[in-house]
Predict the structure.
Amino acid sequence: MTTALAHRDTGLLTAEPRRIPRIGIINLMPHAQQYEQWLLPQLSAAQAFEPVWIRLGERRFSLDDPAHIAAQYVRHADAVADAPLDALIVTGAAVEHLPYEEVRFLPELAPIVQHTAEAGTPVLGLCWGALAVAHLLYGLPKQTYPVKVSGIFETDRLVDDGPIAAVLDDRFWSTHSRYAGFDDDALDASGTVRAVARSAEAGTVIAESTDHGVVMHIGHPEYAGGRLADEYHRDLGAGLTDVRPPANVDLTHPVNLWRSHSLIFFASWVRLVHERMRAR
């Protein structure tokens, strides 16, 4: 409830500052601390919010500083103990090649995502998180690929209405690094989800629920400019034979072509969070 403070001398009423949204971020990326450093700068153009970093019990954080994780991350039950979350982000995870039933943290993730969406709280899924959200909320299948989809691809906006679609360029660059994607035919036939943007090479890139409250971006808009080149060199060094050079990437001098898309995408989504919070 917003309270008003009286100014004794003037009789004017001044409202207290409005509470900023608390956005829970379930960080499932292999290097959690590195991911924080990618994601937060891409949210720099957004309205103010409080990030709440959430850990799952089966997420081991074996590649991170235990002291950092202990200081910065909380379990979901603790995150909502004193105040509700106003939105939820589910990040990518290096499990897109696995059937959902083999993902060890999915049983814990499922009720969090489902209860959040049922409460009308905005949900954003990124990369594998987008596939997981589509599966958990709408039963949508994924397609698994024999070769990684890696690169920067021109992407076409398909619709021009809604809080996300209305601000996107008609054509923009999106960046991808994944072994799975949406089943476009199943998505189009669902009646509950619509495609917002697609790429001829990468398939559906952005999808959303028909009420705009659930957004799924299968790319990595938060990636740093050299990340795809780094991943390619890493995979070659590991002896992997099923990887190709990332499309449209100069491996010697990689250029970030998706930063403006990333900034407007995240800023628009956070604006949606603010609007939904004020409407409650």
Remarks:
- The longest helix spans residues 259-279.
